[in-house]
Specification:
This protein is of the alpha+beta class. The protein has a single domain, classed as DNA methylase specificity domains (Adenine-n6-DNA-methyltransferase TaqI, Chain A, domain 2). It contains seven helices and ten strands. A hairpin with an 8-residue loop joins β6 and β7. α1 packs across α4 and α1 runs antiparallel to α7. The chain starts with a helix and ends in a 6-residue tail after the last helix. The model has no long low-confidence stretch (mean pLDDT 93).
Amino acid sequence: ETAQNIYKEWFVNFRFPNYEHTEFDAESGLPVGWEMNKVENCIKIMKGKKPKKEYTTIGENRILYLLVDVLERRELRFTENEGVQLTTEGETLMLMDGSRSGMVFKSLEGAIGSTLAVFRIKNGILGINYCFNYFKYREVEIISKNTGSAIPHANKSYIYGMDMPIPSDKISSEFETITGKIYKQIEILSSQNQKLKEARDILLPRLMNRTIGV
């Protein structure tokens, strides 16, 4: 929420650092040094693939298999690194098929399922945190443009046609630094929570059968 509020303040309301002394272009309404571009020129949408095998436990040559439940930290799934669409930590993912199509997630390192797509940034034109927050900010709008009645799908054509402001390198770099610390803290806390869950699952049965005392 903090990162989203910063995004809105800087890139929607244009109250970024030193905005008071920044010149704005009369025609575009953007700060001088920024430009407006189409999403299709900045992003390549790459669909995931269903792996041949799925596992519920980690093992040799297994990687994290990213489904919605995994991204929402409700469970862990794993697959093998073969014939799958890989993502790196921090990339933007979107659910492309199903009742929740259009929902935006921040990726973990692993492989994505066939209902998800990774939004890969072209030529380093954007920062990964800016990219995620742009689509997260417009998530409700994107969901409203879903297609299909029986099985909804994210409207890829609409997404590619959206306007995307490209900030100056300086502002972009500052935003990545500030929000990067926020997302790093989220991952640290999530990792600690997972370890606590594992410790609980080991200790609780032993306490119940009195293998160990309180």
